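G.,

No rush on this.
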Amino acid sequence: MLLLCADLGDGQKPLTPAQFRRLRVHVLARPEGEAPAERTLEEADLRALGLEASFARRVAALLDREAALDAYLRVGRELDVSPVTRVSPLYPARLRLLGQDAPTVLFCRGDSSLLQRPAVALVGSRELTEAGRTFARRVGELAALEGFVLVSGNARGADQTAQEACLAAGGAVISVLPDSLADHDPAGERVLFVSEQGWHLPIAPYRALDRNRLIHALGEKTLAAQSRLTGGTWSGSLENLRRGWSPLFVNEAGGPGCARLIALGANPVRLETLDSLRALTPAQLPLTEMKNEE
């Protein structure tokens, strides 16, 4: 999975989760003994499995990266970065809710055991009103008090406000990053930084948007502190409503985006009555049943 789906900084484009799934279907469908088990699949083997020439050539090239992978992981270990793939015991079961969009490879820096603990997610705008800031802070504090790991995106505004409040109250935080793990050093045992596909990858708009699905799916519940009618909080929350990654609870005083999300079916929350995250009961449709695809 690392050879096929990790970006090793070697100029080769890894497979997307959907492409990996496609390859897996072909490999599992082969008759026993048709493909060699004792060596790496080569282009001819892949063609024999029914893959078109260009895709078979690409897969073969990705599989021929052992030296590059060894070097990449060695540098990562110097930063205490470790990979988690979809067959790892540490891989979060909740991410399988994403189906074909579930990440094949995650890179982690910090306490990877946090991936196995109950979690709630917090999203929100970078520019906060006082109402949005107070809501984010309250969610962070309650997550710590009730034993939830807080999942967020480490962005300025709601994310960092909630994260700081959670840690100050003795809680733990998972930050799903859109940039390099090398730029984020967890200063304690209660912090985990997570990056998809490659630990070295720089920030990019598409990465900032893509990580929203991971934040929403990792939380048993997702809370939105504040939202406009555009931007990552809005688009991620809207997609969550459409796909049912987690029950979405929205600050009633969180601005026009939150008001619209409530109108579309999100669960409204009033700060004045927010005394427990465990007590929040979704009025939305129930989550799609988790399926273990491995």
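When you get to it, here's the other one too:
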Amino acid sequence: MKIGIQGEPGSYSAEAAARLLPGSEAVSFTTFEDVHQRLRDKSIDAALLPFENTLIGSIMEQYDLLIRYPAEIEQEFILHVQHQLIGLPDGELGMVQEVFSHPAALQQCRRFFVRHPHIRKTAFYDTAGSVAHVLGQGDYTLAAIASRQAAARYGGRILKEDVHDDTDNCTRFLMLRRPGEAQPSSPETNKVSVLLEVAHQPAALSAALAEFAEHGYNLTKIEPRTIPGSSLPHSFFADFECGSPSEADDAIATLQARGGLVRVIGRYRAARRPTGNCLR
């Protein structure tokens, strides 16, 4: 099974793919959009992409791409992320003047840069790729922020451990399939993701959300987005937990009857949290 990820071997996405789907072949791409495009043109069987992080919130680009490249969620996976500062094999923290990493990783390490104001941060397309870049430069003033796996894979030295802002740093990954190709719901399915488009009128959103409450469902996420060209200008991604996928049918039917549009994006089992408060 070929599963598309954004990032190089040793990245957090590669780690998530190996844990969620042991034995699968992770195919690396440079950007999130590359992965969505390759899923659509059938170059890969599935995609595994980060959608949310406990320290920086939702990755908005992913939701916009999910609108542009429709797909279905088959599984979710939550990875405990631990960032390390990585440099040359015989480097030292005091030598570092510039740090490379993916923008999301840099955002998760704000306190490190506050404590080291002389070190500038530079965005790179990938965490693991930034380690390979730094080691290839052979410059002691350069370092990268990435995982322990990346340090081991590329031969870097961990100059400072756990530079993320909080130990409860977790990223929620979603495994996507082409529309109609996601595996059927199982008896353990207890989570549903939908895209809601509601009319521009008073209390339209509150009426939609009331349907979830009336059916006893736990709304775990709601994310407003704009859908270009839609006749209903107010659009929301929503996740809710329920006892089984069939229990959501009445709520969805009622939402549609109110004049809104409801697109079911996925029915799947909620992922286990690796730590106490990760994406509770």
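The longest helix spans residues 127-137. DSSP finds nine helices and 15 strands in the chain.

Enjoy the weekend,
O.
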